[in-house]
Specification:
By secondary structure, the chain is α/β, with parallel strands linked by helices. The protein folds into four domains: 88 residues, Fumarate Reductase Iron-sulfur Protein, Chain B, domain 2 (Orthogonal Bundle); 52 residues, no CATH class; 131 residues, Rossmann fold, CATH 3.40.50; 114 residues, Rossmann fold (3-Layer(aba) Sandwich), CATH 3.40.50. The chain is built from 24 helices and nine strands. The strands form two sheets. Strands 1-3-2-4-5 form a five-stranded mixed β-sheet. A four-stranded parallel β-sheet has the order 7-6-8-9. The N and C termini lie far apart (67 Å). The structure holds iron/sulfur cluster (2 copies). One iron/sulfur cluster (SF4) binds next to helix 2, helix 3 and helix 5.
Length: 431
């Protein structure tokens, strides 16, 4: 029978036939834990994809729902003894489905018009900031208007904007003291508008520990959300632009690394080659580029901190592993070692610290009920630690976990903790 998939991006049999249906991934899967359905487990989704590819199952609304309910957290990859590349399978299945079943218009607009456009993102962040600070937010919430317009969920998840966008594209910041490395820092797209303070902190920390930091021009949205959602053509377009924008600079300055402080972006940048399996020349360029990419925590841990800079933070912290750092990039110990280097900071592990918090890109907007259930679980395990600081290493997780923080609790990125420990909270532009 003919496959239900039609495009060159369809899932590869060589990937999904690696599944031996052992079921060891089931309990690691957040959607299986919440929904209790085999069809919403990794094994169940792989089975449905294999059946569709064999022409025994149509690409129905039911199948689409089960595939769209996946977080693409890749916890199943960590649990799998057969090395099934689940992320590639689900992303390819979604890409093929999108050919006949496009995303809702608001999601297309977000991914194709807003995220790749820094000007629009900055404008949107400014409007959101005014809305939050002017009292309009309180008014809108109290009036019931948001519920009437079906915007209540989206509004509830909107982050508190902590300043104007990080403005330093095209600049080079010298290392403090003797230069130990030369790095390119990718400020990201949405995070740059929504959490600019984190980018300031990242550049400061890299410089303090001896890195010259180049913030490049011409590098835009990495395409991670597009790849997860199945918009692979658009993701390829973004990847080509980004690779072309940076490969010259990497060579010219002899960059030691291309640094990201967002784990979803970092994972996508490390896996650019996956997008080009039908374009060998671009695949080669993508792989050369990806070989330079490192998460900020991974890089600093390997470089070694200047410990004399770190002053005590007397607090109890707990660390939430971002899915795309732990399961996709396999970086687990580096953030913990960096936190352990801060004098006075006690790190208490929460239960299942690598279970998704429900953020997963824009999953909390697409599937708010499941995302809320996952967040509620995080609230319980975080509260059990007694920590006042919830630390993570990804902007999306920070925004989601902020909603789980109780009174007296704060959410921080590992880089913000190092920044605070070094005691320098001034903005770059004031230096
Ligand atoms: S990616 Fe996450 S949500 Fe999706 S099947 Fe794997 S473990 Fe479950
Ligand atoms: S653990 Fe791996 S091999 Fe076993 S059912 Fe899950 S995906 Fe298949």
């Amino acid at each position: 029978m003919a496959s239900a998939f039609h495009t060159a991006d369809a899932p590869r049999a060589s990937d999904y036939t690696r599944c031996i249906r052992c079921g060891l991934c089931l309990n690691a899967c957040p959607t299986f834990r919440v929904l209790g359905e085999e069809l919403d487990s990794p094994r169940g989704r792989i089975y449905q994809i294999a059946q569709a590819d064999a022409g025994r199952l149509p690409l129905s609304d039911g199948l689409r729902l089960h595939l769209d309910q996946c977080l693409v957290c890749r916890a199943c990859e960590t649990a799998c003894p057969s090395g099934v590349p689940y992320g590639a399978i689900i992303e390819r299945a979604r890409a093929d489905m999108r050919a006949t079943r496009p995303l809702p218009p608001w999601q297309r607009w977000l991914m194709e018009s807003l995220l790749p456009n820094p000007g629009r993102l900055a404008f949107a962040a400014r409007v959101l900031r005014i809305y939050q600070r002017s009292g309009l937010q309180k008014l809108a919430r109290a009036s019931g208007l948001l519920r009437a317009l079906r915007l209540a969920d989206a509004e509830r998840f909107s982050p508190v904007i902590d300043g104007p966008p990080f403005p330093h594209r095209g600049q080079t910041f010298p290392a403090h003291g003797t230069r130990r490395a030369r790095v390119i820092f990718i400020p990201g797209c949405a995070q740059n508008a929504l959490l600019p303070g984190l980018n300031h902190a990242t550049v400061r920390v890299l410089r303090q520990h001896g890195c010259e930091v180049v913030v490049p021009e011409g590098f835009g949205c990495c395409g991670a959300l597009h790849t997860h959602a199945g918009l692979r053509d658009f993701a390829r377009q973004l990847a080509r632009t980004n690779i072309a924008a940076l490969e010259g600079t990497i060579k010219e300055i002899g960059a030691d690394a291309v640094i990201s402080n967002a784990s979803g972006c970092g994972a996508a940048l490390k896996e650019y080659g996956e997008l080009f399996d039908h374009e060998p020349e671009w695949q080669e360029r993508a792989r050369r580029f990806s070989a330079r990419v490192q998460d900020a925590t991974e890089f600093l841990d390997a470089l070694g901190l200047r410990r004399e800079l770190l002053r005590p933070i007397a607090a109890v912290a707990t660390y939430q592993d971002p899915c795309h750092l732990a399961h996709a990039q396999h970086v687990r110990q580096a953030p913990r070692r960096l936190l352990a280097a801060i004098p006075g900071l006690e790190l208490r592990e929460m239960e299942r610290s690598d279970q998704c918090c429900g953020s997963a890109g824009i999953y909390n907007l697409q599937q708010p009920a499941i995302a809320q259930s996952l967040l509620a679980d995080r609230e319980i395990v975080i509260a059990a630690t007694g920590a006042s600081l919830i630390v993570t290493a990804n902007p999306g997780c920070m925004l989601q976990l902020a909603r789980a923080a109780g009174p007296g609790q704060a959410v921080r990125h590992v880089l913000e903790m190092l920044d605070r420990s070094a005691g320098d909270n001034s903005r770059l532009e004031r230096e």
